[in-house]
Amino acid sequence: MSSGGEPGPPVHAPTPTPESVLGHVEFAERVIAMARCARQEVVICSHDLDRRIYGDQTLIDALRKFLLEHRRGRLRGLVSDPRAAMRGAHRMVELSRVLSSRIEFRQPAFDAANAACDFVIVDQRSLLLTPDPGDLEAHYYADAPGLAREQLRDFEQRWQRAEPAREFTDLRL
């Protein structure tokens, strides 16, 4: 309150400073570390589940462990091009088939404003974001619940309009 008894201007938390993540190797390492810390939910938004990241056996093992150890744990993913994902990240697709009650992938309706953004959110707190999939630099926010929830709100809107990614459930390997 100000000296006159009126409320002062709202106080906003400072915007967290991201850590720079360069290249696919660092991105994959960061996703693995995030998955190992997950307790409730992992959210993935990707154009095609790049095999160099989402096909990594260490990541698959970390996600499997998270989902099996946490009764309410779940993984949701929006994949813009499921056919390309089928050609690339078979380990992730197979995991989604084995743990189908805990993992769901959907194909979003085309939305030009969000089509180019790849990200991973864990437990509504940590966020790994690549603003442009062609870019080799991503931004990692280890503890940014405000930013993570903002990105999750966008994800939720797209999730509601998305269709199940049939390619993931219909595959017979």
Write a structural description.
The mean pLDDT is 87. This protein starts with 18 loop residues before the first strand and ends with a helix. It is α+β, with helices and mostly antiparallel strands and 173 residues long. The protein has helices at residues 23-37, 51-54, 57-69, 82-88, 90-98, 145-161, 166-170; strands spanning 19-22, 41-46, 74-79, 103-107, 118-122, 126-130, 137-141, 163-164. The protein has a single domain (19-170), classed as Endonuclease Chain A (Endonuclease, Chain A). 35% of the residues are buried. 40% of the residues lie in helices and 22% in strands. The longest helix has 17 residues, at 145-161.
Task: Supply the key terms.
7 helices; single chain; 173 residues; alpha+beta
CATH class wording: Alpha Beta
Structurally, the number of domains stands at 1
Distance between the termini: 64 Å
Low-pLDDT ranges: none
Share of residues in helices: 40-55%
> Can you tell me the CATH superfamily?
Endonuclease Chain A
Helix-strand pattern? EHEHHEHHEEEEHEH
As a whole number of angstroms, the C-alpha radius of gyration is 17 Å
Q: Please state the structural category.
A: alpha+beta
By DSSP (H or I, 4+ residues per run), the number of helices equals 7
Indicate the overall shape: globular
Q: CATH fold name, please?
A: Endonuclease, Chain A
The beta-strand count equals 8
Mean pLDDT over the full residue set: 87
Strand order of the largest sheet: 1-7-6-5-2-3-4-8
Most strands sheet: 8 strands, mixed
CATH architecture call:
2-Layer Sandwich
The fraction of residues in strands falls at 15-25%
